[in-house]
Design goal:
Length: 328
């Protein structure tokens, strides 16, 4: 079992299998099918390019920091489910993919509802068949006074979408399937942080999807609750990070709820937009180093008993969305 931070860093290793400099040499085994099948030599770095080596180090640290907010546990399909003798996580995934084979391959025979309401603009993403599952991420959540289990399984690429199909399944105390939706809004998805208490008997969960390139990180969060044994999305929030010479601009969310007694409590989502100096010693030519700064944007949601859902009480993210739309 690995932590999310470990997996995030290991995901980079096939491309960073050997770094050579005067005093630094990192050699690791190649991981993943791409590495095993690759005949290309590993990338080479030398002291003639210290900025490259410095950028590599900062990138590794950034990936670890992004993943540190994760709180779920990872299990292989053959691992036994604690408290359920004779049941494995393979059995849990098989409840979503009935023809799942012991090697983790199969076909998804149902259309998973999408975590974001697409309206009439598009059809929900569908998995490229056959799907392959290697492991699951697991988190416990309280909903309607019951202790339930969330299981997140990556089912592979979505057909015609720049994202993966990520099945998030809800199981009761006996590991019987209650509901399943697709929370894959980008290439990599995980459960983000601990569940957030939204009533005396309920918690909400946050999912985080992202991908990144050399200078930008694209994030997509969803805050999801359980009602009547089914998932219900409270809201989804997109974020954007930038990296350029000596600078790192990042956006992260925090979700909180205020104890309001009976019923569902008011809930607030806050996005922190922050610029840091990533490398004080960077040689950026004529570019002037910017001073660090932080801005926050918040939006509050209140429960509507008549509508049976959380409703945003303001347009707190309108400015943030406008700013980010100009940065893509």
């Amino acid at each position: 079992m690995f932590t999310s931070a470990t997996i995030a860093v290991l995901a980079l290793l096939p491309w960073l299998s050997e770094v050579t400099a005067a005093t630094v040499k990192l050699t690791v085994p190649l991981l993943g099918s791409d590495a095993r099948n690759s005949s290309s030599p590993p990338p080479q770095f030398s002291t003639e390019s210290p900025r490259m080596l410095r950028a590599l180090t900062l990138s590794l640290l950034a990936v670890t920091a992004v993943s540190a907010a994760h709180a779920g546990d990872y299990f292989d399909l053959e691992d036994e489910i604690a408290g359920h003798p004779g049941k494995t996580w393979y059995d849990a995934v098989k409840a979503i993919v009935p023809d799942l084979k012991p090697d983790g391959t199969g076909t998804l025979q149902i259309d998973l509802p999408y975590v974001v309401d697409l309206g009439d603009s598009d059809l929900p993403p569908k998995a490229v068949e056959p799907i392959t599952v290697h492991s699951v991420e697991v988190q416990q959540i309280e909903a309607e006074g019951r202790q339930l289990t969330l299981v997140l399984a990556d089912l592979g690429e979505a057909d015609g979408w720049a994202s993966n199909v990520e099945a998030m399944a809800l199981f009761d105390e006996n590991m019987t399937l209650l509901d399943a939706i697709n929370v894959g809004q980008d290439k990599v998805t995980e459960l983000y942080g601990e569940p957030i208490r939204i009533s005396a008997r309920d918690e909400a969960v946050v999912t985080h999807s992202e991908h990144f390139n050399s200078n930008q990180t694209y994030g997509a969060y969803a805050v999801v609750m359980v009602r009547d044994g089914k998932f219900q999305t409270i809201d989804a929030v997109d974020t954007l990070g930038d990296r350029w010479c000596g600078h790192d601009r990042s956006q992260a969310i925090a979700v909180s709820a205020s104890d309001a007694g009976a019923g569902y409590w008011p809930l607030t989502i806050t996005v922190t937009d922050e610029l840091k100096r990533a490398d004080e010693g960077a040689d950026c030519g004529d570019e002037v180093m910017q001073e660090p700064w932080t801005e926050t944007y918040s939006q509050t949601y209140n429960w509507s008993a008549s509508m049976g859902l959380y409703v945003a009480g303001d347009e707190g993210f309108a400015e943030l969305n406008a700013i980010n739309s100009e940065r893509y």
